[in-house]
Amino acid sequence: MQQWTGESRGNKFFQKLLAFFVKYGGRQIAYAISYGVVFVYTLMPSVRKSASFYIKRRFGGHFFSLFFHIYKLNLSFAKILIDRAVFGIRGDVTVISSKEDQDLCRRLLSKNKGLIIITAHCGCWQMAMSAFDFMEGDKYVVYYRTNKDVDKHVHELSGGSSPVHFIDSAGFAGASIEIMAALQNKGIVCIMGDRTFGALSNCVEVDFLGGKINVPASIYRIAGALGVPVAIIFFPHVSGGRIDSVIASSFSVEDKGAKPENYAKEAAVFAGCLEAFAKKYPYQFFNYYNMWSK
Amino acid sequence: MIQTSLEDVKKVLSENLDLEGVDLSSVKEETPLFEGLGLDSLDAIELVVILKKYYDITISNMEEGREIFTTFETLRKYIEENRTK
């Protein structure tokens, strides 16, 4: 079973405090405050432990360097949370995708089969779909929100309506039918490719940062069965208020039947892209649990 | 409307899903599809694929899908009323 809990990094009080500073002080004030808050937060052993699984894989190192890397990781996460709040409250964030990537997305959509966007818990994934205004079609985000998840979506902060439909991954039949219905209506479905949900029998094992992790295989099965093109897209936080949207890979999936292991090749492509992202943006990888645990 | 029996549906499912350990002879009209066969999210994908492949039926509405896949009888009835092959 999955190791992650869905618990937010901050709590409700922190979220409200963040929203207050963003609303009345702006991004830079909120950034400045985050340095101290994150330092105190990183002193907590449970916080360091949850971040250490990835940091040790990525950097190795001893106590002091570990603390330094975890602090930088948490600070980066805090800044992304601040930018999300800024986006929701003040609308002052730009998501940039290159013309080449936009053209590629349009070409994939022109196949008239819908589009599967696979991303991961890295960079500014929560603002992902804001990058796709240029694409026609209904947009869906497959999302599991536990009662421990207090993070607010952009539209919840702004009080507006959501630009995307949410599909609950804990919903009927593990959301498979809802995802397929959306795609059969030529929708654009965004899903996380890095977290397992439910039984590991639905997953496939891939190499990642020197070990093995399980990633879900069902989305590749859906892509193969329906002939839907896949784009792996990440959203690195480049600077205050600026997010890039980068297509790491795009491909079609052959219909190879029902077995998860038949989609190991596609899952490995995803894992390779994710590892490249973690190497390029080491402090923007936000899986705070032991992904390498069996 | 193309007549479709419960046995027809059971045959197609048994040929396409991994139903090891399931006694299909004990399956009745009112048997819940997912709980009755121990199906998971991957099997749900196969159910949608089966409907398209064998009956040319496309599920394009989630609420519809939830109703269709409630029991064997709801599935059989939907296939019978909507199949084109």
Encode the helix/strand succession of chain B as letters: HHHHH
Indicate the radius of gyration of chain A in whole angstroms: 19 Å
Major sheet description of chain A? 8 strands, mixed
Q: What is the makeup of the main sheet of chain B?
A: none
Query: Radius of gyration of chain B, Cα only, in angstroms?
Result: 12 Å
Summarize the amount of helix of chain B as a percent range: 55-70%
CATH topology of chain B: Non-ribosomal Peptide Synthetase Peptidyl Carrier Protein, Chain A
Distance, first to last CA of chain A? 8 Å
Helix-and-strand structural type of chain B: mainly alpha
Average pLDDT level of chain B: 90
What percent strand of chain A?
Answer: 15-25%
What's the order of the H and E elements of chain A?
HHHHEHEEHEHEEEHEEEH
- Classification by helices and strands of chain A: alpha/beta
What does this structure look like?
The complex is a heterodimer of chains A (294) and B (85). By secondary structure, chain A is of the alpha/beta class. In chain A, 42% of the residues lie in helices and 18% in strands. Chain A contains 9 helices and 10 strands. In chain A, strands 1, 2, 3, 4, 5, 8, 9 and 10 form an 8-stranded mixed β-sheet that branches. A two-stranded antiparallel ribbon of chain A has the order 6-7. In chain A, strand 9 and strand 10 (242-251) form a beta hairpin. In chain A, helix 1 runs antiparallel to helix 2 and helix 3 crosses helix 4 (63-89). The model of chain A has no long low-confidence stretch (mean pLDDT 87). The mean pLDDT of chain B is 90. Chain B has one domain (6-12, 30-82): Orthogonal Bundle (Non-ribosomal Peptide Synthetase Peptidyl Carrier Protein, Chain A). The chains are: A alpha/beta (294), B mainly alpha (85). The A-B interface holds A 172-178, 180-181, 184-185, 198-199, 201-202, 217-218, 221-222, 225, 258, 260 and B 17-18, 34, 39-49, 58-62, 64-66, 69.
